Amino acid sequence: MVKILPRHIAIIMDGNGRWSKNQSKPRHLGHEAGLETLKNTIEAVAKRGIPHLTVFAFGVENWLRPDEEVNYLMGLFLRALNRDIERLHENEIRLRFIGNRAGLQADLIESMEEAERLTEQNHKMTLIVAFNYSGRWDLVQACQSLAEKVAENKLASSDINETLISQHLSTAAFPDPDLFIRTSGEQRLSNFLLWQLSYAELYFPEKYWPEFDEEELEKALDFYATRERRFGQISEQIGGILSSEPRVQASEGTE
Ligand code: FPP
Questions:
Q1: Is the Cβ–Cβ distance between 61 and 95 less than 8 Å?
Q2: Ligand 1: residues whose CB is within 6 Å?
Q3: Is domain 2-133+176-251 in CATH 3.40.1180.10, yes or no?
């Protein structure tokens, strides 16, 4: 039987710190291991023909961590970008970043922009990295740009609807995630894609992120395939069949 796959998976890669603690290793080795898991997951998702993967790499609240850890994560991100971008490009993966670039160091912004330029024409999969991101920030910046259009008489406030809001979020070009995964047993959204996850199926494996492998991904996909996605309707209205195609969805994206 053909398994229904999500078009977009969003992941909170949680548990790097607890994994390293369990192994009596310093925290930064948990993040290094997490990066390896991320690379394997990107390839496993792309291999299955799933067109969008979004990962939460650094949240606005993560600035509150000790300086040493924040600096380590910034350095790891920059190193990973410069070192691994060619492999992503060879695998025909398009890289896009969402989040507030203001306040990030200049060399990081430059590498992010260069990576987006280099991979722009790739079509196998789009990897969306949420960096210095928060769901509330995204909604605020969308409100600000809508308000500016109203102030400039380019838009009437009565024309603001769900579609228009979706179109002003940093994720405007992508469909909403169908499947949300947060590892490590924590069951929170932690200010991730607040608007965009409205209809996502939520999956919380117990494994820490460095332990998440292809077998775990397959379990998440099995879970997704058994869900009946009703989008507010009743089972009979959608034919009682398992469906990944919503009859109603806030954002279809522009791709
Ligand atoms: C959550 O684990 C993980 C993060 C805050 C960082 C995610 C980063 C990676 C997976 C590393 C590689 C990715 C990039 C793009 C640099 P945690 O530290 O909150 O773990 P804990 O809850 O067990 O302490």
A1: no
A2: 13-18, 31, 34-35, 38, 57, 62, 73, 76-77, 80, 209
A3: yes
